[in-house]
Amino acid sequence: GLHQLEQNVPPDYRRLHVRLNINMIDRIKKYGDDLLFWLYYNNIGTTIQLLAIQELQNRGWMYYIPEKIWITKALGKEAPKGSYGVYCWFDVANWKKSEKEMSL
User: Fold this and answer.
1) Band of the pLDDT at 18, cuts 50, 70, 90?
2) d(CA 85, CA 97)
């Protein structure tokens, strides 16, 4: 028909989740850490998970691969010396932030 044009566009362009992600880039900065962790753990392998990772890292969180946990410097505690210190970590089993002394 008159309005049907043949255009080469990336396949992702037509997917709903990609269109939603454009809006999420601005909104995700306003989300709390709990929601970011929920997005991370419940959107495995998606752009939404990558956006959650980026925002968590912007807030000082890092994924500690050996223990498979998210950690950051504990607020109100002395800064870790070298790699040893008190860190805040996200306990996914109990869905809360906890503190522990550890060496990275």
Assistant:
1) low
2) 16
